[in-house]
Amino acid sequence: MAAFPLPPGSVIGILGGGQLGRMLALAAARLGFDVAILEPEPDSPAARVAAHSIVAAYDDPAALARLAELADVITYEFENVPAQAVAMLTELGAATAPNARALAVAQDRVEEKSFLNKAGVPTVAFAEAHDAASAAEAMALVGAPALMKTRRDGYDGKGQKWVEHAAGAAAALKDLGGAPAIVEAPADFLRELSVIAARGRDGEIAVYPPGENHHENGVLRRTAAPAKITKKAAEQIERIAHQILNSLDYVGVIGVELFEIKGGKLLVNEIAPRVHNTGHWTQDGCEVDQFEQHIRAVAGWPLGPTEPHAFVEMTNLLGEEAADWPRLAAEPESRLHLYGKREIKPGRKMGHVNRLHPLD
Ligand code: AMP
Hints:
alpha+beta; Dna Ligase, domain 1
């Protein structure tokens, strides 16, 4: 088992080869680390900037053994890592971060909200539904209208359905493919906010200023940060981040999505046990960005400062929008981040642009 802090020259393993893995790998390289990527797709964005690349399924035992052999610590760029893969890595004696519990909690919306409430973090009212009878019970408990979501594997607004009347619950469950679901009360939110925070191996916590998020068709379009929020809201969000990180004995960066309700109440919608799209603004707006922060945390290094030095509007470049790079590259206030994806598909996250403005 590796001794922490890991010295430069150590190898950081990452499960997943998408843009988050790529930006983690670039940050790791800046600190003198090598990176090993395990990803089923060949020629992935992360593998192309990494020292080592293993192309195999996430639960392929030989691939996991190779990764464990190469890497001094293994982390993730997405939360839906098969539990079996995490168990295998643990059996192989690999150091993994964040821990298996954080992944398990974030993989299941019922587990997630139950965990949050137990940790003293408020959410919308919710109930589980797995068949017609439990769906009817859930609707009786939560009330109509309600939002039904699959418990697992939902992302970017996929696997969700509004249920206008209690009578429609069984049909909605069927529409979602019959998979176990969560039934949520509607959050009558004014704004969607998120906070990126990190916890080190020694329990030290660093929290970034929250951002304000705008989604289109369930996909993040823009984050503006630091969000204009009251001191009270900022303190409350900071407290929520601490409660979540400490309750999970977490190591690494976490993304926490929140609803701001009328009257200033804050509810947590979901947690992502990884670097997060709503934290991309930190690359050009903060002293140490979320990617370096995550590498620092998992490598057992001290966390870096999170102070903002600019107001940033982060805009995702979806599909063909990335073809606009010559114009974006010519904007003096814009910092362009492109993921090197070979194929443009409609709606695919191809890059993002951080537009910098002076802090108030
Ligand atoms: P999620 O997949 O949970 O991140 O949800 C995707 C988006 O759906 C969120 O960003 C919100 O805009 C919306 N949403 C999720 N849960 C609720 C809820 N309980 N009430 C109202 N809107 C919601």
